[in-house]
Design a protein that fits this description.
The complex is a heterodimer of chains A (about 240) and B (about 110). Chain A is about 70% helix and about 0% strand. By secondary structure, chain A is mostly helical. Chain A folds into 2 domains: about 60 residues, no CATH class; about 160 residues, no CATH class. Chain B has a single domain, classed as Arc Repressor Mutant, subunit A, CATH 1.10.10. Chain B has a two-stranded antiparallel ribbon with strand order 1-2. The chains are: A mainly alpha (about 240), B mainly alpha (about 110).
């Protein structure tokens, strides 16, 4: 345990703490909700605690808050229930769709063949956006865990990917639309009914078109579509 | 029935009355209760007590002495008083006939004499 003593606060300009120790306490308090952060930093400023204990208080509270979130179904559904299986599924779809498109582009004289791989690519992008949207809206406070559940399989597959250079991108076609969906899901908790119907239809089509991993896996991947349909904003 | 730490928090809040808030309650628990109390345990337990309707909490106005930061004020509700009393009476009742319970009684009767 460190012996660093609590540094005095400069009250004159709004809690401007001196010393790296207290700055780290304030940085750690960023893990807390804004209202609670203010209360806890105020309490710590009042009591003459050493920096290590103050840091333990803040991190302990943040850890307890995070743990309490996991008693609910939402973080589990977003991370283990969707982000993990969706990233595996979408990597397969990304590779297949980009390979289709590359094949069609090699034979550009047969333009009528191009629409099919393009529509499959559009399905992947839409499904990725919808999955990201559901992950972002189901559990905003545990987004880090959902992102981890998505990144780990991606990094593993990238490490095993036989191609070189830009061919890595074929695995991750879904990635940017997925992140865009997460961002939208965090900000807007409900979609309009029209968008929802479109996305739900795509949600049904995409796993059916690829049917990777068997029908149980495919049926499981329907749930984001049902979720957006159930939470759609309906006109009053 | 409330738990031991919940009882300590209810007692600290009741002891402080209108001045009950996080830092002050922690001070009372550590000084009078003789145990360390982290802010994490304190605020998580306060949330639980509030969800049970045993305490009420609200934010004070920003206070200059805390660098313009607000306090989370605490008040024990009628249900909280009832729950704390129930816990206290259970402890007294179950302690009667024990070494520690008898020594307390004899000390009290000795004091009275």
């Amino acid at each position: 345990m460190g012996r660093e003593q609590a540094q005095p606060f400069d009250w004159g300009c709004g809690m401007k703490a001196r010393g790296a120790g207290w700055r780290s306490v304030e940085a750690a308090a960023g893990l807390l909700a804004p209202v609670e952060r203010e209360v806890v930093l105020g309490d710590l400023a009042e009591t003459d605690r050493d920096v290590w204990r103050a840091l333990g208080d803040v991190l302990g509270l943040a850890a307890r808050r995070q743990l309490s979130l996991w008693r609910n179904w939402r973080p589990w559904a977003a991370s283990v229930g969707l982000a993990l299986p969706a990233s595996l599924f979408l990597m397969g779809c990304s590779v297949a769709a980009s390979a289709d498109l590359a094949g069609a582009l090699r034979e550009l004289d047969q333009v009528q063949l191009l629409w099919f791989p393009l529509s499959r690519l559009l399905l992947v992008i839409s499904w990725a956006w919808m999955a990201g949207f559901v992950v972002g809206s189901v559990s905003r406070a545990t987004l880090w865990a959902s992102l981890l559940a998505c990144f780990v399989p991606c990094l593993y597959c990238l490490s095993k990917w036989p191609g070189e250079g830009l061919s890595h991108l074929r695995l991750l076609v879904f990635f940017l639309p997925g992140l865009w969906g997460v961002w939208r899901g965090r900000r807007q908790m409900q979609l309009g009914l029209g968008w929802t119907v479109l996305l739900a239809a795509m949600a049904m089509l995409t796993p059916l078109m690829w049917s990777k991993g068997g029908w149980v896996y495919g049926c499981w991947l329907f749930w984001p579509g049902w979720y957006v349909a159930a939470t759609a904003r309906r006109k009053q | 029935m409330v738990g031991e730490f919940e009882f300590l928090i209810l007692s600290a809040a009741a002891h402080l009355g209108e001045e009950a808030y996080g830092a002050a309650m922690r001070e009372v628990i550590e000084t009078n209760g003789g145990r360390t109390c982290s802010l994490g345990a304190l605020y998580i337990t306060l949330d639980r007590l509030e969800a049970k309707g045993l305490v009420e909490t609200w934010m004070s106005a920003p206070i200059q002495q805390r660098g313009g930061r607000a306090k989370r004020m605490v008040r024990v509700t009628r249900e909280g008083v009832h729950a704390a009393r129930e816990f206290y009476q259970a402890v007294i009742k179950i302690s009667s006939g024990t070494v520690w319970g008898e020594s307390r009684r004899s000390r009290l009767t000795g004091d009275a004499a």
